[in-house]
Amino acid sequence: MSGNPLRNHLFASLMLVSCLLPSLAEAGGITLGGTRIIYPADHKQVSLSVRNTSDQSSFMVQSWVEQPDGKKSQDFVVTPPLYVSGPGNENTLRLMYAGLPAKNDQESLYYFNTKAIPSMDRKKMEGKNVLMLAAVTRIKLFVRPSGLTPSVEKAPTALTFHRDGVRMRIDNPTPYYITLVEIKVSGQKLPDTMVSPRESVSLALPKGAGSTVSFRTINDFGAATPEQHVPLK
C-alpha cells in the first residue's frame, strides 16, 4: 500500500468510561449484577454476575480490585480475572479475600473494577483507522465484619449535622461507610458525599441556610432510602 501511512497501520486508542445506574453497573455492553458489593468478612468468597447485554458483540472482560487510593490491591483474588464474553452471555465472577485479617470493628473499603474491551476482526480492520473504546466500571466493595452495631439499616439515623460557620459538618459515629445523596438545606441541593466510619465530612452551606437538612442514603442494594429530615444543630 502507498499514500497515507496510517492506512498501513491499525490505530487504536483506549477511552475509560464509567456508567452508574440505579440498580446495575454497566461498562459498554457488560453489565454487573449490582452497583456495590458487600463482602461479609467471615465468608470465603462472594459471587457477582456479569452479563453481556449485546446481541452481536463479544468483549474481553478483565476484573480487579483497587484500594481507595487507586492502587491495585492484592487482598482479593478475582476468578476468572480475564475471559471472553460472547453475545448474550452471562458469567459469574468469584471474589475471595486473601489479605490480612480484616478490621473487626468497622467496614473496610475497596473498589471493584471491570474493563470491557470490544473484540474486533483484524482482517476486516486491516488498512483502516479504528477507534476502540474500552469501557471501565468501578463500584464500591465493602468488607463487613459480623456483629456490628447498630444494624446497617439503622446507621443513617445516627448521623448528626452541625453548623460550623459557613459550612456543615456531618458526623458518622457508626462502623459503616454511609453515602448520602439528595442532600438539601433550605431547598438547595448539596453535593453527594460518603462519610467514613467514625469520621466527619464538611460541606459548604448555601446562603441563608435554615435549620433543617433533608437527605437520602444508598442501601446495600444500591437503591436510595426514603428521605429523612433532621435538625442542623
How would you sum up this structure, described in words?
The chain is an all-beta fold and 233 residues long. It folds into two domains: 5-144, Immunoglobulin-like; 155-231, Sandwich (Immunoglobulin-like), CATH 2.60.40. It contains one helix and 19 strands. It has one helix spanning 122-125; strands at residues 19-20, 25-27, 30-32, 36-40, 46-52, 59-66, 76-79, 82-85, 90-97, 108-118, 135-144, 160-164, 167-172, 178-185, 188-190, 193-195, 199-204, 212-217, 228-231. The strands form four sheets. Strands 1-2-3-5-9-7 form a six-stranded antiparallel β-sheet, with no helix packed on it. The protein has a five-stranded mixed β-sheet with strand order 4-11-10-6-8, with no helix packed on it. The chain is globular. Residues 1-23 have low confidence and may be disordered.
